[in-house]
């Protein structure tokens, strides 16, 4: 599994029947009552689209895109135009809708939701330059005042207490832009239009950090790719489905074939196995192809080589010879023990490479992290299915999870690639663990590293 984050290109909170612009405010307040607001934003999907178009990442059926925004405290002062009540209360038990913005708009440079005495005469001033409730750019208004007409809802978010964060699946919307070329005018968040006419003594509000927060909690869209490599070449088991991979490189970099190859599976005498020829393959990520199949009724004794022949290989328009690789199918009972109850707990030594403690990493670097696990009772390094990493940052005394426990790729080593191109410059912490049937084993200390913009 790998991740990619796309951050907001612009945002603004527009207020009902008001020209006020609040784009640069570090928070958005979405509310109804004496007034009404909508938060509009555009996610910059350019880098994600470039990586997909270049073949670095593959959007498949299991790929998901999530809108993520962090809840924060609401204000307690009267807003521009608010004549009644004492301010705003946190709303509870409600839904917010996420909708498509139908037209191009400019962000603006305003900040204040409230009246401020900024000029020499003490007059109440605020910025009214587009965008706002009426205008999308300086010279043109919205076709429908208040941006949204009610026909393009992307999703609905339910809030119980009102302090929940936003974590909304917007996969279809993002795929429409990245894969189908739909126009990206952005999204908006608001209470349903039925709240527009409601009047309350105190506005009912919910607040989130915006693009301009000075904290780590900048909003983003997270793309989760189901592209973990789980290569069974070293542990192929008969009578079940297994994965084998072809890795294509140019120099030290992965490199794409012109099209997906096909695969024939041959037995120990190099004879094609019936039903296992012309197998289709899947591209996992750049230069990495997978075939999935099982062997039933063959002699899988853990001693004989079988072969996977990769055919129809085309690179830069040139057809190349078939690639034949080896694997040794083991019997289904391999790895099982029948009889006495095990009593000893195996102890492991865990080492990592590819990143240094306290390393400063220039944003954009791709780091390959490798974990070596060795049983204390055996001198050799072993490969394990259940090896995980987690990354977090520290906000005061709180550990804020960036990526929760995620499995390493399993090839001829336990490894994963850390793409730092979308990581906000700051200090991060990484921890490792592995699982056995009896316990979880953690690396003794956190690995601390820092993402910097430049040296």
**Oligomerization:** single chain
Beta strands, count: 38
Give the averaged pLDDT, no decimals.
89
* Low-confidence runs: none
For the CA atoms, what is the radius of gyration? Answer: 28 Å
Q: Please identify the structural class as seen in this structure.
A: mainly beta
Strand order of the largest sheet: 12-7-14-3-1-16-4-13
Task: Give the SSE map.
Layout: E1 2-15, E2 27-32, E3 37-43, H1 46-53, E4 64-69, E5 71-72, E6 88-90, E7 94-100, E8 116-117, E9 124-125, E10 135-137, E11 140-141, E12 153-159, E13 166-169, H2 171-178, E14 187-190, E15 203-209, E16 220-225, E17 241-247, E18 249-250, E19 253-254, E20 262-266, E21 279-280, E22 282-285, E23 288-294, E24 306-311, E25 313-315, E26 318-320, E27 323-327, E28 348-353, E29 359-362, E30 366-375, E31 381-382, E32 387-395, E33 398-407, E34 409-410, E35 414-419, E36 426-435, E37 440-442, E38 447-452
Parallel strand pairs: 6-15, 29-38
Antiparallel strand pairs: 1-3, 1-16, 2-15, 3-14, 4-13, 4-16, 5-15, 7-12, 7-14, 8-9, 10-11, 17-23, 18-19, 20-21, 20-24, 22-23, 24-27, 25-26, 28-30, 30-31, 30-35, 32-33, 32-36, 34-35, 36-37, 36-38
